[in-house]
Amino acid sequence: MSGETLLKVQGVETYYGNIRALAGVDVHVDKGEIVSLIGANGAGKSTLMMTICGAPQARNGSIIFDGTDITRMPTHLIARLRIAQSPEGRRIFGRMTVMENLQMGAGLDSMKYFNEDVERIFTLFPRLKERMNQRGGTLSGGEQQMLSIGRALMARPKLLLLDEPSLGLAPLIVKGIFAAIKKLNQEEGLTVFLVEQNAFAALKLSDRAYVMVNGKVTMSGSGRELLTNPEVRAAYLEGGHH
User: Fold this and answer.
1) How many structural domains comprise the chain?
2) Across all residues in the chain, what is the average pLDDT?
């Protein structure tokens, strides 16, 4: 942990029409950390991820990334600062092959590292190498999730945003994906901000975490603190994740 803040979200309010989806959110992510945001469905977690990426834009508050104010910046310029997102629902290009999907993820300035980066992704997710010439739409859910993360990594991000990476996947696949995230963080120092409904898996992986309820952060602490917190256990960890 360098203790140097990479992402600072302060007092952020986001609206859909007249409906306030985020009600003054404060979170920060330091360089080299894995930070997770847990909460029930509809709590505003994905909205925060999308607001960081500029669509929708925050109506109030500020978002500072690596010293740059990105609050009012258009999405494509935010991406250029090397924030990459693996969005909820994966959203890979179904008609394109695995390789073409990875090409879409590479930024123009990272094309010179293209082969090296592809190898790195194939080492992380060997399944993608086997499926390299297969269309994205024919992959299993787990393989699509690997591809979505791989595509985001092709941009050589300083910050990787992961929105619900375990959604709809079998526990064994989830374990593999979380192990890959941990490996990227430990071996490459990649900073990760993770939105996840599987609170148990997220908190075990994370240095720090925030709990969101109705568009507000209601609690924060280290992953370990929140794992043992009785309120968090009762709300998010009951039901077999032990």
Assistant:
1) 1
2) 92
